[in-house]
Amino acid sequence: MTQKYKERVEKLTSMLDLDMVVITEPTNVFYFTGCHIEPHERVLALLINVKTNDTALMFPALDQEVVNDTATVDNHLPYNDGEDAFRLIFEHAIDAESLGIEGGHVTYNRYQRLLENYTADQIHSVEAQINQLRGKKDDDDREKLQEAVDITEKALADLVNEPVSGKTEKEIAEFLLARVKAHGAVDVSFGPLVLTGENSALPHGTSGETTVEPGHFLLIDFGVVTKDRYVSDMTRTFIIGEPTEEQTAIYNSVLRANEAGIRQAQVGAPMNTLDDAARDEIKADGYGEYFTHRIGHGLGLGLHEAPSLDAQNTDKLEKGHVITVEPGVYKAGFGGVRIEDMLYIDDTPYIFTKFPKDIDSITLEA
Length: 366
Known about the structure:
By secondary structure, the chain is an alpha/beta fold. The protein has two domains: 2-135, Creatine Amidinohydrolase, Chain A, domain 1; 139-364, Alpha-Beta Complex (Creatine Amidinohydrolase), CATH 3.90.230.10. It is built from eleven helices and 17 strands. Residues 123-162 form a coiled coil. Keywords: Coiled coil, Hydrolase, Manganese, Metal-binding.
């Protein structure tokens, strides 16, 4: 594993024409070092000498044991509360005439501190290069992502093996949280998002006290974080009791869109063509106006990573991309359906999610 982190650093520096990189987003620091620290208001920074690949981790001294046990870096730069962390950065990067930072993460106040030693022209964003690296996964990543999906699906199976009618959204969310931890997750990656009845028409609603009743759509979107920090993200929508004609039409439209997006997920396919393939199915069924978001996104150590599978992104899918395919139809006052699967892009795309999604399988007893 130590070699894996060193190779990631080398890949990053090979893409850059700078002197020093300062990485402060905790998941990015973990990606390049294997060390996960949540610094809260304190400063955490991985300093990479682009010319030599020498690495140094600057961290709150209270996290020294975590760094000793897990960090793959050449140098440790601990600091105590009250000490000026930026002075350590400036001292370590004293010969650097150009600096790379995560442009979308560094706060205004911290950027102003960097301007004490560098001009704006000397500071460059390397976020695109980091995102590009994190967007590509290998076989080890795939195995660990499958573990995350397996835990998610086990918890969902536990839920539907019992009656859900009469339970509130919050009760179901709490049940899923308990079950994913029982199956080995350290946490949920978000949610669980549980929306029933008319609430299911809210793509990112909030689980509340609404009770599951016969005739409802029950939308459940959630994922987990494993011990290795990998995440999952999947959605299944259930129908409580015998589906109505309109429920059947909407559900099958979204299912066809989901399957069309998955068929299009091939090495070399422009990313927007996945969105087009799914959206065309829903438009053909007359529900185009109710599909209000992109078809999917990347994920891995983070819930939302590169790439973004939106209608404007013409970048091509590459081997190693991990993506979601998650079309939806959300009809206010009636309800909504989203079906989300996770895929690994390979010569033959690999589908992580196996939980059934045909209408018979997702129809639950009232």
